[in-house]
Design a protein that fits this description.
12 helices, Heat Shock Protein 90, single chain, Beta-Lactamase, alpha+beta, 508 residues, Helix Hairpins
Length: 508
């Protein structure tokens, strides 16, 4: 609206200036033409009066000259005075007359210039713009001159001064009228622009607000439909889109709930028979030394797969609890460094099987208010994941604490991750290499649950890496759940390995 008003002001000002200039020029030209006609008529009359005098005496010519000059004073038509001046460069005439002296002669005489007198001597009517006295000071005026031949007295120049005060008054009045008109038009333009903007932008603002509500998940947002114009069509289209999104979201939400309920129900229903089968399998596994080699191998395979099945059911139950929003924290003061050491100790058989050396270091204060079970589960997932992908290279576990948070960095120098893999590594059922044979099994939910465990504490779990170099997983939790914290460690990919890392005892 501001642009429209400013543009309108500029347009009106330019148009007003052009109109005033045209009016001023037209008024001046009209006044000039009228005054020239009047002056020419007066000069002709004066010339005739001088020509009609036969064998005039000096006194007669002086009387005629005085009459001519005094008669050319008529303020009603703008004629404010005249003067009769003898032309320069003439021989002494037979009859001499004095320049007529009336009240305005001296005033008009002072306005003459050499340029104007030179033009006048040429014979035609000449003119010059000047400033003449008016009622309220000097005003614009004209000096008109012409040559007059006086018998026996020689060549003279007749000049008359005209005031353009009435024309200036007309122009000032016109300018005031134009100014008031422009102001009125600008006010009207501003009002109309505001009204149009309100009529046009209000539906757009409503559409923006409704779209923002849709983005926030408020699918019941609708626009009010008014009229049948394009904006009304926009509102109807928006409402149709919102209704379609709400319907699709409702169906997806219903399907998601059905899937979650199904997974939860199946997991619960399978838990009892799997527990029974595992107990029976455990009895067979415990007596495997009494079996034949073929049956002993079958008992070991059965034991491993039942353990994997039990872990899968546990993961599915845990993720269904997160989906249902039924999780809560049971925090207590915990030494995260001690948890890391216990996890590494429990994973020692897997490290030994994979021929991987694990180093553990503790820096700063590793104590925090966390739920030990969840943090231990996160560390176990990260360490086991690192051991499986280390490909015989070392694994580093570093616990760093500061005043507001504790970070656990698990770094391996194995197959590594690229940017795309790092962006999806916490997705459900996603694996960087699905063809890889995993020695510990897995559901593809471990890292997903680990990230949920970090977030329920108000912390973060991040991953990065370089293919062929290694990967880094960084868990950061605040010392008080959901409190503001400053991360003690920044996420960084591992550098290429230049030498083996030796296991290091933790440092306090």
């Amino acid at each position: 609206m501001i642009i429209i008003v400013v543009g309108g002001i500029l347009g009106f000002v330019i148009a007003g200036a052009i109109v005033v200039s045209q009016i001023r020029g037209a008024v001046f030209n009209a006044a000039l033409q009228t005054n020239i006609e009047q002056f020419s008529a007066d000069a002709t009359i004066a010339q005739d009066r001088f020509a009609q005098a036969s064998s005039p005496t000096s006194g007669q010519l002086q009387q005629i000259a005085n009459g001519v000059v005094s008669s050319m004073y008529d303020p009603t038509r703008g004629l404010i005075g005249s003067v009769l001046v003898r032309s320069d460069g003439q021989a002494t005439p037979a009859v001499q007359i004095l320049e007529p002296q009336v009240a305005t002669s001296t005033q008009v005489r002072s306005l003459l210039t050499p340029e104007l007198r030179a033009k006048t001597k040429a014979g035609d009517v000449s003119y010059m713009s000047v400033s003449v006295p008016g009622r309220d000071g000097d005003v614009a005026g004209l000096i008109l001159g012409t040559a007059v031949n006086i018998p026996s007295a020689g060549q003279y120049e007749l000049y008359a001064a005209y005031s353009l005060e009435s024309q200036e008054s007309l122009i000032r009045t016109t300018f005031r009228v134009l100014t008031f008109s422009v102001i009125a038009l600008i006010v009207l333009l501003a009002f109309v622009s505001w009204l149009l903007m309100r009529l046009v932008l209000k539906p757009v603002q409503e559409a923006s607000a409704s779209a923002h509500q849709l983005a926030e998940g408020e699918f019941e947002a609708r626009m009010e439909v008014r009229g049948t114009d394009e904006l009304a069509q926009l509102a109807r289209s928006f409402n149709l889109m919102a209704a379609s999104l709400e319907d699709q979201f409702t169906r997806m939400e219903r399907m998601s709930k059905v899937q979650t309920d199904f997974v939860s129900a199946v997991s619960h229903e399978l838990r009892s028979p799997v527990t029974t089968i595992r107990m029976a399998g455990q009895l067979i596994y415990d007596k495997r030394e009494e079996l034949s080699p073929a049956l002993r191998r079958s008992a070991e395979l059965q034991h491993d797969q039942l353990r994997n099945l039990d872990m899968m059911l546990s993961d599915l139950l845990e993720i269904s609890r997160y989906d249902a929003g039924g999780t809560s924290l049971a925090t207590q003061p915990t030494d995260v460094g001690e948890l890391a050491r216990n996890v590494v100790e429990m994973a020692a058989p897997l490290a030994q099987d994979n021929d991987v050396e694990v180093s553990v270091t503790v820096e700063g204060d590793p104590h925090a208010e966390v739920e030990p079970r969840r943090i231990e589960r996160v560390l176990r997932n990260l360490v086991v994941n690192a051991l499986e992908h280390a490909e015989g290279n070392p694994v580093s576990v570093r616990i760093v604490g500061n005043e507001s948070a504790v970070a656990a960095e698990v770094m391996d120098w194995g197959i590594g991750l690229d940017e795309d893999q790092a962006a999806h590594v916490f997705d459900r059922f996603w694996r960087a290499d699905s063809s890889r044979v995993r020695k510990t099994g897995g559901t593809g939910l471990g890292l997903t649950i680990a990230k949920e465990d970090a977030q329920i504490h108000g912390g973060t779990l991040e991953a990065t890496g370089v293919l062929g170099v290694g990967s880094t997983f960084l868990l950061t939790v605040p010392k008080v759940p959901h409190a503001h914290f400053v991360a003690p460690v920044a996420l960084a990919a591992p550098e290429p390995l230049t030498g083996d890392l030796e296991p290091v005892e933790e440092e306090q």
